[in-house]
Design a protein that fits this description.
The protein has 786 residues and is mainly β. 3% of the residues lie in helices and 54% in strands. The strands form three sheets. It has a 26-stranded antiparallel β-barrel. The two termini are 63 Å apart.
Length: 786
């Protein structure tokens, strides 16, 4: 047929790759024409030699190559184009005009495609783009590929990888679908075009003579590489290896932290991440300090189907002297200083679990001196400048339906200079049992509870307590919306004390009873029945352009009086936060040593309004009325008298742009402010401001000192990428500044830069801690060191 050509407006065909296609190379041109001119656009191109002149779509079968079958792939390419032809019998199959080829999950688009059956080679030209199963895209002017579109050569190569990473090179060679070798290459994860689509210099990039992307080992290797920042070379390395952009976790160095401070001198932290397996990893973070030794930090994490464990610890060999004009002066800290934080749990069976939470340090000032926090997976609210006690806990828990049994052990470590370890208790064990009955009793829910605790001291009073209770509650809502509830509790407590003459940490070691010298042991019992009822009436309606909600609530509770004699030591009910959220708890004591007794009425009202213009107002106020006083609470808490203080909240915000949240307690007689917590914020234009105010009386504060503090934070976005901010913590009671932070930060799609100046005005002479000023710098390159 010679030069005869077949043209069509839009055609599709399937190319058989590998050995099967090679056997069809001598098929008659008429057969090719018949297949390509079929009215339907998807037909097998390959036919056996000597087959009929036409191939029916219904009966056609495309054999697969042994290699592709072993790999689990379909050994054929489906392609479509504006024009498909074959100029000569033994020539290539040519597709032109918006060519698209598909092989499994790989897709190729180009202006022109040539397929050579004899060599099983595909050549694509003009605006070539190849997309794989991971949505990674390769671009080139011209590529030569194997028939499965997996291996080949590319000129003027570029690739858009995962995590916005980009590779470009003069040419590239892909081998076995696993390694890509590039020459004169550039790598970055930054955008290379601005918002208008014009080219721009990326924030950072690596230029290298040779680059190898190894998908099997999931790394990218650079040889003879320069790291550029904004187009300026700043660092040369003969060899650099980084994680492949598709990798979630891989061993390697993380972003270093460089700084200097009065307490530590020049310091640098260089973390190294270990990815041991899919469920175990670790981070080693050695921190060199010029004046306080080298701190070795390690965080180890392990997760599996039945549990999770994380360990964090640090150790430093510290020269426990400070320089003085008369010579070195010893400081009351150990030579080797350390800390351990750990947390985890393990499910032994679907119903049985063990767990732990560990907090221990070598000395009081170690956390503050080295600015150590519970970081990463251990993060929680731990303020080292105000932490007074660390707690270590281990537990065994069984849960089955409505039954729960938990056995705990606790160790405490005080961080105040006046703390005496011999008077600090350890709890071993504390056993808590609860069972909720599945069937209703008298139409309500019922459960029983038992709790045993043993508090031991090496040089103070010991306590053993057993408490048991039975609770019942029933709720009913009428058709008119009134909510009625009734509840009751029968509770009994028994205490056995030893060594009362040695005191405890609350009594600073003084005897706990007048006759303690003669009676160092004591046995005390208590029985407290409690009954109550509650009414609430939630109302809502549309009014004056707002949806308004109002709920009045009244609760009556009755218990015998005199349930808190002096002979029962208060060790677990010291801290009580009296606010609107807890006023309707019929027993407001936080532990077992105190129980709210007597007859009382808790009453309050909650109201809110949501306006159409975006304004939201929410408020509440409540008070307790008692028929007699109680000794269950310290008067400073606002509870215990016949009339409690007023407690409530007031929140106002407008479209999340500006708002204030308040929690307050006012004196019931002169309306003086006894306790306040306020959080105000402003989000407007490029400004973010936040202020937190807290006011506590001496008896309410955990350190037995009145506390009035104001903490403010602010951030101003200077440009699209640059911002500045500050944080300021002020002790209003003493009129002193506690902490200041100033931040200058840069952030874009591929990098972050932070410059922090921190001033710490707190001092601890016994631990050798003076005021401190620190400067910290951190620069992160996303996808390379992250």
């Amino acid at each position: 047929m010679g030069e005869r050509q077949l043209r069509s407006r839009r055609r599709s065909a399937r190319l058989l790759t590998g050995t099967a296609l090679a056997s069809v190379a001598g098929a008659a041109q008429a057969r090719v024409e018949t297949v390509l001119s079929a009215p339907l656009s998807v037909l097998p191109l390959a036919v056996q030699a000597g087959a009929p002149e036409t191939v029916s779509q219904a009966t056609a079968r495309t054999p697969t190559s042994p290699l592709a079958s072993a790999a689990g792939e379909v050994d054929e390419v489906l392609f479509e184009a504006d024009e498909v032809r074959r100029d000569v019998d033994d020539g290539p199959i040519i597709a032109e005009g918006d060519v698209r080829a598909f092989f499994g999950e790989r897709t190729l688009t180009a202006d022109r495609l040539l397929y050579f059956p004899d060599t099983d080679v595909v050549v694509a030209e003009g605006g070539v783009a190849i997309v794989d199963a991971n949505a990674e895209t390769v671009f080139a002017d011209r590529v030569e590929l194997t028939g499965d579109l997996r291996d080949g050569l590319a000129g003027n190569f570029s690739a858009l990888l995962e995590e916005n990473a980009r590779l470009a090179a003069d040419n590239a060679v892909q081998e076995q679908g696993a390694r890509t070798r590039l020459t004169k290459a550039v790598y970055t994860s930054c955008n290379v075009c601005d918002r208008d689509g014009d080219p721009k210099v990326p924030t950072w990039r690596i230029k290298a003579l040779r680059v190898t992307r190894d998908r099997e080992r999931r790394v990218v290797r650079f040889r003879h590489a320069f790291i550029e920042i904004k187009g300026v070379p700043i660092f040369y390395a003969p060899y650099i290896q980084g994680p492949d952009p598709s990798v979630e976790r891989q061993s390697g160095f993380l972003t270093p932290l460089v700084g200097a401070s009065r307490r530590l001198g020049f310091n640098v932290e260089l973390p190294y991440y270990f990815a041991f397996s899919n469920h175990t990893d670790a981070t080693l973070s050695p921190r060199y300090t010029g004046d306080a030794g080298t701190l070795w930090n390690l965080e180890l994490r392990r997760r599996n189907r039945n549990g999770y464990h994380v360990f964090s610890g640090g150790i430093v060999d510290f020269d426990n002297t400070v320089p003085d004009e008369n010579g070195d002066i010893p400081v009351d800290v150990p030579g080797v200083r350390w800390n351990v934080f750990a947390q985890g749990h393990q499910n032994l069976t679907p119903k049985l679990q063990i767990g732990y939470d560990v907090e221990r340090v070598s000395d009081d000032g170690f956390l503050r001196n080295y600015a150590i926090l519970r970081r990463g997976d251990l993060r929680k609210e731990l303020d080292t400048s105000n932490s007074l006690r660390l707690r270590t806990n281990a537990y065994l828990q069984y849960a089955d339906g409505g039954t729960r049994l938990r056995v705990d052990g606790y160790l405490f470590q005080g961080l105040r200079p006046r703390d005496d370890a011999s008077l600090t208790p350890y709890v071993l064990p504390q056993i808590d049992f609860r069972h909720q009955f599945q069937q209703r009793i008298l139409g309500g829910r019922a459960d029983i509870r038992a709790n045993f605790a043993s508090l031991q001291r090496t040089g103070g009073a010991d306590t053993r307590r057993l408490s048991a209770s039975a609770d019942w509650e029933r709720e009913h809502i009428t058709r008119g919306g009134h909510r009625f509830a009734a509840f009751g509790q029968l509770r009994a407590d028994g205490y056995f004390y030893q060594d009362l003459d040695e005191g405890n940490e609350l009594s600073r070691g003084r005897a706990l009873t007048p006759t303690a010298a003669a009676d160092s042991t004591d046995l005390v019992g208590r029985f407290t029945p409690t009954f109550g009822a509650e009414w609430a009436y939630p109302l809502t309606r549309r009014f004056a352009g707002a949806q308004v909600f109002v709920e009045p609530r009244v609760q009556f509770v009755a218990s015998p009086t005199g349930r808190n004699p002096d002979t029962i030591l208060n060790e677990d009910s010291q801290s009580i936060e009296f606010d609107y959220a807890g006023i309707f708890d019929f027993n407001k004591a936080t532990g077992f040593d105190r129980v709210e007794d007597g007859q009382r009425v808790n009453a309050g009202v909650l109201a809110s309004a949501v306006f159409d213009n975006g304004l939201f107002v929410d408020g509440s106020i409540a008070q307790q009325y008692r028929f007699q006083d109680t000794e269950a609470f310290d008067p400073a808490t606002g509870l215990g008298d016949t009339r409690s203080d007023y407690v409530g909240a007031l929140d106002i915000r407008y479209k999340n742009r500006i708002g204030v949240e308040n929690r307050f307690r006012f004196d019931d007689e002169d309306w003086s402010l006894e306790r306040a917590e306020s959080n105000a914020y402003l989000n407007f234009w490029r400004v973010r401001l936040n202020g937190y105010y807290v006011r506590l009386g001496a008896e309410q504060a955990v350190n037995d000192e009145a506390r009035e503090e104001l903490t403010t934070r602010g951030r101003l976005r200077l440009t699209r990428n640059w911002s500045t901010g500050f944080s300021w913590r002020q002790d209003l009671e003493a009129g002193e500044t506690l902490l200041q932070d100033y931040v200058l930060a840069y952030r874009d799609e591929c990098s972050t830069l932070s410059l922090i100046i921190r001033r710490d005005f707190t001092e601890d002479e016994e631990a050798g801690l003076g005021t401190d000023i620190a400067v910290l710098v951190q620069f992160t390159l996303r996808s390379l060191v992250d």
